[in-house]
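so the lab meeting is tmrw and i was supposed to have these ready like two days ago... anyway. pasting both below. for each one the top line is the aa sequence and the line under it is the structure tokens. i havent really looked at them closely yet so no promises
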Amino acid sequence: MIPEPPILLRRSVAWLIVLALVVLAIVAAWAYGKTPDLRRGAALYAQHCASCHGARLEGQPDWQIAGADGVLPAPPHDETGHTWHHGDAMLTDYIRRGGQAVLDDMGVAMTSGMPGFGEVLSEGDIAAILAFIKSQWPPRIRAIQTERSGG
């Protein structure tokens, strides 16, 4: 017959289990807060981006050819465009400050019609939009863009 463990040991084990569950809940809540919500990203994309970049991320026709005003049409954000060619830091900056500010800083002689959304969208909003866009790409494209983002 196996003797029953002392009451102090049983209580210690019970408290360790409770502590482990609390730590697990805290870690899960932290991780959830760090993971952008794709539904939220989709809604924000529909509200702020789709009017130019298309509801299906298809962009505007002839997006690689500047219009009569010298402004390039909005490019697609699907795998046929070039969004995935850029890292997250550049994409975030482009959304926050607008295309022209970023292109000017880079010394690129192009005219962008992309407005800045830094006054409208939070960093979390921008991250959610980018997460939604990336979720629409094939795995190979996501992997390439992740590598370009330093991840």
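ok protien two:
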Amino acid sequence: MENKKSLFTLSFICVICVIVNVVTVPHNILSWDVFGYYLYLPLAFIYHDLGATDFSVVEQIVEKYSNTPTFYQGMHMPSGEFVIKYSMGLAFLYLPFFAIGHIIALLSSYPADGFSLPYQYALWIGGIAYTIAGLVLVRKLALKYFNDFVTALILIIIYLGTNYFMNTSFYGQNAMSHNYLFTLYLLFVLITIKWHRATKMKYMVPLGMLAGIIILSRPSEIVCLAIPLLWGVTDLESFTNKIRLLTKNYGQVLVFAGLLLLIGGFQFAYWKAFTGKFLFYTYGINPGEGFEFFTPYVIEVLFSFRKGWLLYTPIMFFALIGMRFLYKQNKGLFIPVLVYFFLNLYIVSCWSTWWYAESFGQRALVPSYALLIIPLGYTLNWIQSNSLLVQRLLFTLLLALGGLNLFQTWQYHKGIIHGSRMSMDYYLSAFGETAVTEDDKKLMLINRSFDGIEQFTNEDEYERKVLQVIDFESLKEEGISMEYAYSGKASFQLNEKEIYSLTSATPFTEVTDHYYAWIRGSVMVYPIIDAKSNPTSFVICFEHNGYSYKYKALDFEKLNLKLNEWNEVTFDYLTPEVRNKQDLLKVYVWHRGTEKIFVDDLKVEVFELKQ
């Protein structure tokens, strides 16, 4: 039997994959982001309400299965529909497993509601199948360029030496897009190779379908088109020849483009049906996150203690070093791999929340490993061709870096490495440790609540300063009233016409020079009728380009305010991960009733951690 080493290695790591997935089986895989990716399927095929016009169905599901603490996975439209934030590519990939789960539910005593155990386990097993398929394809691609030993090493390094291990084998992470995209990219590259060896329609059709589903799964993956476009290109002349080749096979190119539009058309049709627009930016639901194309976070993505790719997956330095060997030995692969990698890295780095939520390492770069195995293999070839001393030194280093990845994966599993709160001080204190103290944990980045409930409990650890006081004196604004005043002679009267008080608006750079602060807003309120019949809210939020995010409001009708006297209303607010440091902190009172109410002495205080 040929290539025994890589076959044995593949079998071994597939067994590990299954075992680790079983040991860390998730409580409910249909949770968090996966809930959003998946929601298309039960809404379409079980509830026949793709727009979730009866949103109580979704609320009942979440109440029963605890899929998500908030409905961040979509947005409610003025017409009443609920538009899912994520594009539907993953739903297409989940479809076979959803169907299997549905059949099992129908034939058993489990509810056929789209979320009971048969659906959860079907998707979980489907994720394992995609991981194993991906590993099989890694071996298949590697053997096209490298010997059996190097291929076996590539399999070990990619699975056990990188964050691909955590992001495919623990807690149902295999249902995330990164696992599916990694496998699809490998298939995409293999078919690209076949088409360039024999320019036939039978290869162009699956190539177009794969490109369509990859982009539909995550639109930023449009960079995948650089792979077939630049495959085999080494210089300007070869690029010209490539254009001639595509022109010669224009019929196939049209089929490729048609398949892209056909598959993308499902998303366009969905948006048109429920938003009235063929193109709709669903991530606009949260102005606090988005692409910052002119200020990418490349250094943070690569090297930060919070989520630096090369800090938490240092073994991939060998893949980057391999670009040099790839350039010297196979320029036809060098150009597409390099261009794809840098385009993908740039797009990943442009996302304002570049740490990509709770995860180990830079999970957004996992799909790119499908291409990076090529320069990685060239580095391993170079090591193998060196003296025995160099081989021993570098293979020892590879072993050490792989061991570090496994140990830090275990630390993540045990909660020692946090999924989003790592800082330099905490990383250094936890490095190599099997346990951490509560004092160590204080070195982490500030804990941010997923459910929106925030309590400022350690005020004594912070320095307090007054940012602004609006006393409504010496102002000639509409709404200034002399009828009542808590201090001085004037207050602000809110009524049916004047629904907003004067606003405290301060750029984040003037709020604090730290990465966060606690804000305390306070205002004196004089109600003359019961707040339940004259509702008003005290609001604190941040604003980016005129749109609010991290919006918090304290409703007066929920408070026990005394009539015809001054009441102090106050609440604390943790600043968000600001999208831009020029974003405005805004504090104001919003009147939602029709009768008048008076406010005075609106004060904003800042609490910064003592150094």
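from a quick look at the 2nd one: The first strand starts at residue 74 and ends at 76. The chain has 22 helices and twelve strands. will dig more after coffe
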